[in-house]
Amino acid sequence: FIAATQPSTNWHLKENARDHHTSKFSSKELIVRRGQAFTVTFNGTEQPEQNLTFTAETGPKPSKLAKTQATFGISSTVSTESWSAVLQSTSSNSVSVSISSPPNAVLGRYRLSVQSTSSGSSSPASLGTFVLLFNPWSSGDDVFMPNTSECEEYVLEEFGIIFAGNKNHINGFGWNYGQFQEDILNICLSMLDRSLYYRQDPATDVAHRNDPKYLGRVLSAVVNANDDQGVLLGNWSGDYEGGKNPSSWTGSGEILQNWKKSGFKPVRYGQCWVFAAVLTTVLRCLGIPTRTITNFSSAHDADRNLRVDEFYDASGNHLDRAADSIWNFHVWNESWFFRSDLGSSYSGWQILDATPQEQSGGIYQCGPASRNAIKEGDVDLDYDCPFVFAEVNADCMYWNYDPATGKKTLMYSESTVIGQFMSTKAVGRDDRVDVTNHYKYEEGSTKERDVFKKARKKLGLEDKFDPTAPTPHEIDLKPDISGKFKVAGPLDVGKDINLTLVLANLQSDAKALHINMTAWSTVYTRRPVKEIWKDSIFVTLSPKEEKQYPIKIPYTEYQQQLTTDNMIEITALCHVEGGIQVLVQRDITLDNPAIDIQVLGEAKVNKEVDVEVLFTNPIDMEVMDCVLQVEGNDLIRGILQIDVPPLKASETSSMKFTLTPFEMGPKHLLVNFSCDKFTDIKTFKMVNVID
């Protein structure tokens, strides 16, 4: 039936890609989505078309039972339950067929072959390979997303904005997900084949690749290097020797390419937003709608008691002694799919987290946790709901700890601090959208407390005696004074920090206070790195009196100590004579100086256009080791790196380069500027490319 030579196959790449929303992939291989027909034409037929049988198979041990192999002939109609082929046209020596896969087909690279059933002796002839992805445009698919503009954003958009900073000061920076860059799809498929699940049982793992909840969980493990030599090695020490500072990355492409080039050795280094951004790239590439979410004042509850304990010594130093912590921000993912295990009320957005924080099922993976389950306190549902619930809802206990005696005293507790300003990029716009109300009921409402109690009950915390918990008597103790730090001037790297400590006596008798103050540089997880400043004062407050104490931390004192996160924690521990101690604490994030991008002229496809980047040195000393890094999909191939001469005090640097855009439409240019005094100053600009 088939000629002695290999049949030549026309995959109709352009038309199929257009119909399947896969035109952005830069591949010579057919890439299509499940549950939708694609056309293929091949030659070499000598038998009637009705006698043709096709085989599509994937994975190392294809089997019909595991649905990793399908055999199907020509039929008159498309089946929604199984693979099918419908004849399109025939000529003297070629056949065109429309092949459809079921909407729950296994994802991956398939081998397609054809055989004539009438001449029993002939062996199947290979037509080649194609890649099958999830299909959020198809109503039969578990990842179906009815809103097409959301499909565009969460599957096809390669530019994102990730939010960081702290609850008092939110800033966003651009990220190039680059899921359609050359070879990224192949790297994503290799990630699946490098997971522990695949290594333990390849055939079963491949058979489960039809299920977005399975793939999401597997990939949340492979993105971090723990357990499986995955993509990224985490580092929160503040010292990034031997790798790249996590804040210097501007896109996922470079990370994934480096992982492959090194023979799949973990790339150094990642922190939460890098793990989340890479997972966004991989899931969007495979067709699962995905976005990044930033949670401000995010709890890391290591012991599953929905409580986070922080310890301070008598001098006010934040002690790094608890497994629990409160991060200034934490970034994770939400992916959109139906929960076949939990039903429609728990479907929709699902939380996945690739940052290695706690083990789940013996390895560092997290999710999918249903966002609806988190909001309703249904923490007994799969997967990892207690951990995610605590990230946005835990209560905080602040303790005074004496390292000499091991004695701890509760200073105060808070139930409304954790989980604030939860942020993601808007659909089709470069704006921030707040999604906090999708994670929890309003703070302070009875509904919110009821859900918290329900979660505690489901975790068995209501009945269990916890010797480490504060007693009701400790919780009821009321302080005699209140205090807060107010910002009294701009918070900019290179300038002195001016704050005011405001103290108020809440009682109608005078109070004597001894106050120990400290400021430490921290990483964004609020892990103290270096002491910057300390002071202590004695204060007397008359009845109901309020006093203000100005605090100044000069740039010269913090310049050497600052981490690249530009974050400082300042505390005042107030020892009140005859009363309970009061902790006043504030996290501040300093802003880097601004950097400006100008596109000098109209951006046209395949025409050169000049770009100028301007940076003014704001400090009164020279800055050196200046480097500019530039990337942008469809504007520039790879990453452009420009070494910039040193800049004297107040001097402006004009850095120029040329772009030749190769696709029309709105594109984003991302720049990252670093020098010895300022690290990773990021900005982005939308460039509208015309034909």
TrEMBL record:
State whether keyword Transmembrane helix applies: no
Organism (species): Calypte anna
Q: Which reaction does it catalyse?
A: L-glutaminyl-[protein] + L-lysyl-[protein] = [protein]-L-lysyl-N(6)-5-L-glutamyl-[protein] + NH4(+)
Cofactor note (record): Binds 1 Ca(2+) ion per subunit.
The superkingdom of the source organism is Eukaryota
Which keywords are on file for this protein? Acyltransferase, Calcium, Metal-binding, Transferase
* Classification lineage: Eukaryota, Metazoa, Chordata, Craniata, Vertebrata
Give coiled-coil spans as residue ranges.
Answer: none
Q: Which family does it belong to?
A: Belongs to the transglutaminase superfamily. Transglutaminase family.
The coenzyme or cofactor needed here is: Ca(2+)
Q: Where are the transmembrane segments?
A: none
Q: Output the PROSITE patterns linked to this UniProt entry.
A: TRANSGLUTAMINASES (PS00547)
Q: What is its EC number?
A: 2.3.2.13
At the top of the EC hierarchy, this enzyme's class is: transferase
What is the name of the protein in this document? protein-glutamine gamma-glutamyltransferase
Kindly give the InterPro entries that the UniProt entry links to this protein.
Ig-like_fold, Ig_E-set, Papain-like_cys_pep_sf, Transglutaminase, Transglutaminase-like, Transglutaminase-like_sf, Transglutaminase_animal, Transglutaminase_AS
Q: Where does Ca(2+) bind?
A: N393, D395, E443, E448
